[in-house]
Amino acid sequence: MSKKLKRTSLFSKDVSSLLYAYGDVAQPLPETVQCLDELVSGYLVDVCSNAFRVAQGSRRSKLKLEDFKFAIRHDPVKLGRAEELIATNKLITEAKRQFNGTDNQALKRFRAGEEEDDEQDADAEADEDAETAEATAAPSGRRTKSKAHKGKQSKRSKQQ
Question: What ranges does the record give for the region Disordered, renumbered to this chain (predicted)?
């Protein structure tokens, strides 16, 4: 374990949740959580420092994913799990990229269709408003179109 690691509780919530998931009580002892937190933190620091040494051996200042794979190469279970997580991450990012691309196109098409619908709705509302304005604008002594039409019908029926 690394001697440079200070006593910090970086993973205390995660460790207590994992303990509960594996059958411990809901609120494990703080000493247990602190002990496991130190172990996890120490392990991560060691893996990262090993990966950094691998990168320096390759004359690079930046770490690559391959450096971490090389650092855990002696543990086939961890290496397999890391490769599985890397592959899953690639699938997720590719799916997000495809979804966002098609989602943006669909959104543009939807918005274009929505604007056309709004224009059609506005035209229909303008026609309705014009008809209502004509009907209400007629003075009370005059007949509107519908009343005049009814009046003609009633005269014809009287003549027959």
Answer: 103-160
Residue 66's domain spans which residues? 1-74
> String of b and e for 78-117 (b: at least 16 CB within 10 Å)?
ebeebeeeeeeeeeeeeeeeeeeeeeeeeeeeeeeeeeee
Task: Give dist(CA 42, CA 39) in Å, integer.
Answer: 5
> Which amino acid is present at 38?
E
90 and 55 assigned to the same domain? no
58 and 114 share one domain: no
Count of structural domains within the chain: 2
Q: The pTM is what?
A: 0.56
Both 3 and 70 in a single domain? yes
Same domain assignment for residues 70 and 4: yes
